[in-house]
Amino acid sequence: xxxxxxxxxxxxxxxxxxxxxxxxxxxxxxxxxxxxxxxxxxxxxxxxxxxxxxxxxxxxxxxxxxxxxxxxxxxxxxxxxxxxxxxxxxxxxxxxxxxxxxxxxxxxxxxxxxxxxxxxxxxxxxxxxxxxxxxxxxxxxxxxxxxxxxxxxxxxxxxxxxxxxxxxxxxxxxxxxxxxxxxxxxxxxxxxxxxxxxxxxxxxxxxxxxxxxxxxxxxxxxxxxxxxxxxxxxxxxxxxxxxxxxxxxxxxxxxxxxxxxxxxxxxxxxxxxxxxxxxxxxxxxxxxxxxxxxxxxxxxxxxxxxxxxxxxxxxxxxxxxxxxxxxxxxxxxxxxxxxxxxxxxxxxxxxxxxxxxxxxxxxxxxxxxxxxxxxxxxxxxxxxxxxxxxxxxxxxxxxxxxxxxxxxxxxxxxxxxxxxxxxxxxxxxxxxxxxxxxxxxxxxxxxxxxxxxxxxxxxxxxxxxxxxxxxxxxxxxxxxxxxxxxxxxxxxxxxxxxxxxxxxxxxxxxxxxxxxxxxxxxxxx
Length: 525
Prior knowledge:
7-stranded parallel β-sheet; 33% helix; globular; Rossmann fold; CATH 3.30.1330.90; alpha/beta; 6-stranded mixed β-sheet; 17 helices
């Protein structure tokens, strides 16, 4: 029997034709209520959506035959990925189908801000002819600051260079070589804030990028700067931006995305020289055609052949390889996440080394899992399939190496990151099917991964362990595991602590203030 797919949101008719031509039965039923969706979802092997249909835990629980959910677009906020993973459902997106469209929308908003086009239109059509009121600025020779210079940001940079703007970019994963190739100057965030006449954001929303333009950061921007956000709501402190617009310190802003959507009301609405559009970044006929075609092709390939592309929760692994690779995929991703959370920026190279029995396996999905782990702390939407191209797009060199003989462990995975601060190495293994960390900074230890962990690098001096334990006790943070490593007595030491509650910023600051502490970080897995 042919697999069945439900197209629950409006897609290009070409998607339906692709499903049919590949031998997949597809029904188009848009605008379903949740009750209606729950009633029929159990009949389908695949679900194709955009952003309207919510594939939440309840819907996924009712989807007894579901094998794949395809999102025509990038964001998957409307899909409960943990629930889908638990149910064995692959979740796919189409991360590159609307890049040009979104970049062009950002450029359009730059022009609209520079020449006050919306206000001038309203005034003129009202018969006012206020020619002297709308004094604009030229883009030529102005400095454009990009926060994020990945796929979309690099397209904006290309267009801005064509407009004869000076382009500077803040992106921790942008290498100097890639910056030269794109014709941009790589800078730190403080430098960008001080120099940019226009700032446009092109980064996903993660814990590290949330409110990257905070009230404090907005206080340091160049007077009269114009800010454009076509990326994600939450990257800019909206209330602080409103204050800056009202005071005149910020010359204008144009937003396509907001913290709460649909944005029926917002603190920014009505602010002077503020332009709002209703999340139109991907809204062109060409972009919608591209993502519809891509999601139909990906879902068909998976349902008919088992091929996995752009999956957010599943590696590209054959059925025969899966049992052997599964624990090492988990190890590679967790170890990569550990490494990614330990590097603040300027990443230039990632080397993954496989030692022992694991070197005899198909390591490509392991390397993809490691890359996804490394990049995800800064790029939330990266996945095992897109991670290699994301790394290449930022000029990050990725290498693999194998050593068949392992002196200690049957199998060992080692990840070495090269960044502005030098190199950092992390190693792990699988013991009884469970991933474990066995080496950090050249120091041996043996620690399981926990959802919340505390990493501390300190001098090996008496009293440190007691002081750390007392601090956690006073903060009501329960310690689940405690593992140590050191170079030599009195020398460099590390501890990796599994905790039941993640430490707050103030609690982490207290750890960093302890005697002999060189570095402390909160990790999550």
